[in-house]
Structure formats: structure tokens, C-alpha cells
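Open question from group meeting: does this chain pack into something compact, or does most of it stay loose? Before anyone orders reagents, we agreed to write out a predicted structure and look at it together. Recording both the input and the output here so the notebook holds the full record.
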Amino acid sequence: MKNIKNKIVAVLFLVAFVVTGCEFGDINEDPSSVVAAPINQQLTSLTVNVGFLAGSDLNRYSSLIMQQYSGQTVGATTQTQFFEQFQIVGSDLNNVWSSIYATILNDAENIIVEATASNSPHYSGVAKILKAYTYQIAVDTWGSIPYSDTQKLAANVKPKYDSDESIYADLITLLDEGIAEVNAPTSAISPGTNSTIYPGAFSTTKTNWIRFANTLKLRIFLHYSEKDATFAKSKIDALINSGALLMISNSDSFQMNFVDAANARNPIDQFETNRLGNLVVNAKLVNMMNSKTDPRRQFYFTQLPAGSGLYVGAVAGAPAGPGNYSKFHTYLRGSLTGSVYTGAAPIRMLTFAEYNFIRAEASLRFSSPGSAQAFFEEGIKASMLSAGVLDNTTYLATNGTLTGTDAQKLEQIINEKFIANYGVMLEPWSDFRRTGYPVLTLPSNAVVPYFPRSLFYPQSELDLNPENVQQKAGMNVKVFWDTRL
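C-alpha cells returned:
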């Protein structure tokens, strides 16, 4: 995909970032919605805000829980250290909830309504696909959430909560509608470079949207695997056997490209720049990769000292050390110019590598179409190429063959998926909740004796919608598909 390099889009990045970072007076009414923006501008806002969502608060919370990131730093205690101890309280979720409901979902709904009225199904199709992705993320974060009563503005500012399982089922219908509309033979207007995800001529990019939507369905079906393996297998097999378009290369990866310009750099780099030293790399991920002499390390992490080839992660919950820990490098922050990162790295949300690991797991566990071994290798190759590794021969020879029992093979698949999904919001946490892999050690200073299985509801919801929601007893409340003990 091409980088977005025009000034208009850069300005819209700034607008979207400001909107995303604030809280609206009412969680279900977006003040910006009273301004009738052209549909093409609304799509830019929607795609930009989806990208910022995927690189911001939920990215940090889930990556700290999953010991890809660490908040271990020297000096004053930082907020990220609290998050690593699982001190993630309701007020910490206010902004991300507002971003989802007052910005992203309102933009999506506005586009769907206007596109339907103007006979522009290509626009409504893209909006429905992004709406489904956003709700999938929200369900996997909180469980039951507002769904059928939302985006009604003043008509209903206190929506009821729908069960997470019922929402998941409806997302498949929403994705099918989106695919059909994206694939419509005619549309009064179509997205183009105004979409910051899959930008370009829609005659070409519509295939990317379809491949992503079908692959998102595979992710959703796989999440059912522990709750109802028979259902998961039947849906996965039917989708594959239908001949539906699925991802075939890294160019299909669902990601948001950012640029080297003020307020247009990716949110991971912006956080690193604005809160220097608040995050480092976690020892769990670093040690997994060190044990395999993984060539992705030179792109994932900084070396200590520079040029040494050594990578050191911070242990979650360990006493603060001298501060000599590897930090995020070019894979997450963009290329390095002198001592400054460009911030032009993409925010990755569902990659071709993940697609291959989904297929590998489905083949291993359910005998779904295809070879688990072949998809496992392709997942590693796709991840290596995305990171910048051109020669994966040695790594595959040593680490690229599934061996042992089915349980051991599953652990290999999820561990490699964990490495490939470095920086991907939420999915490593979902895999851990489903399978127990990778095996993690509870931080010694964790405030609860368990790894979180969902997050608390935002304090703003408790304040503004108390008729429909009560706070959870703890973060051990499970999402419906999470049945692992």
C-alpha cells in the first residue's frame, strides 16, 4: 500500500487526533455530527480514527497485559507501571470508549445512512466492514456492550447493553452486507485516496476490503473454538470451501499507514516521543526471540549497547533495574534518521501473517482445509518479510517445523503468532485467553492474582448510563467465548 503524503490528509490526521483524545459531554452524541460533512471527508475521519484507536490506549493495555511491552523504568512511578500491575480502572477507559462510540461508530453510521440515500454502496460497504471490526474489538475488550440501541443521538442517549454473544453473531451478517455492497457493480461515488486504509482506485482496493472482511470472519469464528469447536469448524470450513476471497499476501494486511509529518506520525511513535521512557520492551517477548536468534529483533528492538547485537527486556513486576532495556525500534516507529524516528511505520490490525496462523490452527485442531505445517511456515515468512527480514532460511530450518503432540504444536503456532503480532492491538491477549499460550508468569507486584480476562467498564458509562450497566466485580469476568479455566 502507498503512504499517504498529501497535506489535506495530514491536516485531517490532526483533527482526528484531537477528537480522539477528548471526551464528549454525552457518550452517544457526537457534537461533530451536527455538521453535515461530505461523505468523502467522513470516510477519511473514520479510517484515521480506526488507525489511532488501534495504536493507542487499548494497544498499550493489551500489550502490557501480554508482556510484549513493559512499564518498568527507573525513577518516578509511571502510569504504564500501574497498567503492567493490572491497575487499569474505569476512568482509564473513558477516552477509548468515547473514541469508539462518539467518533468511530458515529462516523460509520453517518456514512451508511448517507451512502444508502445517495446510492453509493461502495461507501456503505466499507463503513459496515469497519463498524464490524470496531465492535469485534469492543466485545473482546469488555464483553456485553451497547449495540442495537447505539448511534441514535438524542433519541436514545442511554442505550441498553446487548449480550456479547448476540453481537458476535450479528457481526457476521454485517460483514456479509459490507462485502456485498463493496462488490456492487455500480456506485454513485466510491472511496479512493480519501480512505487512509487501502487507499487508491476502488476498482483495485475493493478486493483488499473483501479479503480483509472474510479474514476477519475467520478470526471471529476461531474465537468460538473453546466454547463450541464444532461450530467453529463448520463455519471456518464453509467459508474456506465457498471460495471466498481471503488474504493472499502482505499487501492485503489490514493496516493504517502513517507519515513523517507533525501530528501525522503513528500513535505508538507519538506516545514514545511525548512520554519518553514510559515504555520499554518486555523480557518475555525478547527472551523468546533471543532463544531462537530471531532475525526480526534488529527491527523490533534497539540494541544494548548500540551495535552490540544484544537485546534486553524488562521483567514484568521485577524491581527497577539500571534502566538499560531495549526500546521500540523501526518496526513500530518507522525508519531512523540520526536519532529521530520518522513515525511512518504502519499500525497493523489484522495481518497476512495472522491469517496464516489462523489457518494453521484451524487445520491442526479441526482438520480444516490446508496443511497446518504449510500455513505455519507461511505465517513466519509473512512476518519476516513485513519486518524487513529477507533471508528466513536459517530460522525456518531451526524453528519452522511443527513437532510433538497436538498441544505442543498448538503452542508453537500461538508462540510464533505472538511474535508476529507484536504491536497488534488485542489479538495476542485474545489468543492467550483462548489457549493459555504463550505461557506467562504473573507479575510479582500484580494487584490481582490473575491475568485480566476483560477490562472494567468506563467510569463515564457508570456515571451517564447507570440504568443499563453496573461495574464488573473484577477483571476476571470473561467474554462469552473465553471458557478456559
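Observations to bring back to the group:
The beta strands are 69-70, 145-146, 161-162, 254-256, 280-281, 336-337, 340-341, 347-350.
The radius of gyration is 21 Å.
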